[in-house]
TrEMBL record:
This is Membrane protein. The chain crosses the membrane at residues 12-37, 43-65. One of its GO terms (cellular component) is plasma membrane. The keyword Transmembrane helix applies. Residues 92-145 form the NfeD-like C-terminal domain. The lineage of its organism: Bacteria, Pseudomonadati, Pseudomonadota, Alphaproteobacteria, Sphingomonadales.
Length: 147
């Protein structure tokens, strides 16, 4: 059976919407749900109005654009709160930590040890072995002050 012939029936669109909804649950990314919504509305339109397959595809494409645009706007206005907002911002998680200088900070540049790794840092001059506090970061360079 040709897949375009399946779309001629409203059930094809509704099954497609259900499959996309299930895929959103299995592979969460908050994108497929908007496409599933467009497919479901296209299926309902095909149920109510006798429209040809090319018109259904055009309706689906327009609804996809509108639903994804609307979903992005909604999520921008209503961000999802996180229990750990700095989960993927490792440098922000280090702010406030007391660390050890392993290469002297000379002319504002040096290296500090955090856990089992060594990071570049900027801050006031300090000898190796000094303790400094992380106060910020610029990309992967930590900004430190004397502790």
């Amino acid at each position: 059976m040709d897949w375009l012939a399946m779309l001629d029936d409203h059930w094809g669109w509704l099954v497609f919407a259900a499959l996309l909804g299930m895929a959103e649950v299995v592979i969460p990314g908050v994108f497929l749900i908007w496409v599933a919504l467009a497919a479901a509305v296209t299926g309902l339109i095909a149920l109510v109005l006798p429209v040809s397959v090319p018109v259904q595809l055009l309706i689906f494409a327009l609804l996809c654009l509108a639903s994804v645009w609307g979903g992005r706007r909604w999520y921008a206005a209503n961000p999802v709160s996180s229990q750990d907002p700095m989960l993927n911002d490792r440098t922000a998680r280090l702010v406030g930590e007391i660390v050890t200088v392993v290469e002297p900070i000379d002319n504002g540049r040096g290296r500090v040890k955090i856990g089992d790794s060594v990071w570049s840092c900027q801050g006031p001059d300090a000898p190796a072995g000094a303790r400094v506090r992380v106060v910020g970061a610029d990309a992967s360079v930590l900004k430190v002050e004397l502790a």
